[in-house]
Task: structure prediction
Amino acid sequence: MEVRSDVVHHLRNDNNNNNNKIPSSSSSTSSLPRTRLQVWFIRVCSSILVWTLFIQLVAVGELWQPHLLKGLSNHFKAVRLEEVAPPPAPLLPQRVYKSNGYLKVSCNGGLNQMRAAICDMVTVARFLNLTLVVPELDKTSFWADPSNFDDIFDMKHFIDSLRDEVHIIKRLPKRLNRKVANQLLEMSPVSWSTEKYYLEQVLPLFSKYKVIHFNKTDARVANNGLPVDFQKLRCRVNYQALKFTPRINALGNKLVRLLKEKGTFVALHLRYEMDMLAFSGCTHGCTEAEAEELKRMRYAYPWWREKEIVSEERRSQGLCPLTPEEAALVLQALGFHRDTQIYIASGEIYGNERRLATLRAAFPRIVKKEMLLDPLDLQQFQNHSSQMAALDFMVSVASDTFIPTYDGNMAKLVEGHRRYLGFRKSILLDRRKLVELLDLYQNGTIPLGRFSSDVRLMHEKRLGQPSRRKAIVDKPKEEDYFYPNPHECVCERVNCDGLTGNLGNSSVG
Result:
């Protein structure tokens, strides 16, 4: 606001005239209220002018940086939090050893396949006395996620928390990068290998090649027959060193909090997604057009070897994820009530809401992260499937009950994580037997009561209770996988020998 110049000029003239006169007592008394009014008027005008200028400056600042004030607010909040936050834990003493060389690794697959591979590669580096370069994440697979390691995991914590075991660096030194540019050995380790293979066949290569690059890391370490220290280090990396970034942790914890505010909840890992159906060849419940679309997608990826697949044969072997309609029947048979809160932990369901209609009709309290969070919260995660999967991972681990409809990598790692945290209830569906019962019920051969009782009976001992892995000599692909049941890391607290139930709440529904 602008103060009129003629008003100010008039006030100044009045003051000058008054100063040149010798006031009488009567004139002084009469002018006193007038002088106070003038002073009051000037102060009001000045205040309005100052506040107007301040508001204009703030408006211009917002144009330059919309989040300026918010950032300042957050800064002061952070300062206050730092003042009361406990000091960071002291670093573990660094392990001193003579490094035999540098190991670079490129992980392949989705988030949880890469997570298991990172655990394996840290352990390999430890046993070969190597320096490990922070793993590179897959950016070229079906999901095409451009995320780097530190976009998903807390890199500093990863390096610091393992410093007493293995030296991990963010990148190769520049001098070494130039030196070995033409002498870098790239190789894929033999699948399901023990420490003997790495000691006898891989370690000698480092005497010639100072840097070796493992370009594939999935399932390159055996499940069984390894030293206990080897297995325990895999667990330590998985459950302690691999922490998600603060940004992912904050949003994941927000999801868990929103769910728990509404009561207990089931995390249903409904792996009925386009990539799963296309590559597995599972088209049960799909239209002819959808089955053809999935087949075209399978052929579009030359690296996928198996092209012609008979869906019903695959399904009868228990190798297909349950459809949403089948999942609804199974949940009801397991004893879950209509008002059960169910979180769908998955990407986009093939067929979208049309395929979820039956499941939603049976369980109206179905939610997904997109329903619980503000779109702005998820905007930063769009086109980053691994970061989205990290949110689902956190919710699944924290759920009251976890139910995977397919035993893929996420299902396996969540199951193992829940065992490690105290054998939290995970209902591990026997899909081969389930599809037999589903078909018998749906064609009217058995009644609903018989179907429900049989489903509950077959899962009484499949709740994630303590048990030992099944090892099959010379058939590593058929034996139990390490990560769903790392018994070397959990059976010290609970005796896993011969236990099949009776731990905590062993009821199914």
Summary: Residues 1-32, 58-83, 499-506 have pLDDT under 50 and may be disordered. The chain is about 50% helix and 5% strand. The beta strands are 102-105, 131-133, 167-169, 185-187, 211-214, 266-269, 342-344, 366-367, 401-404.
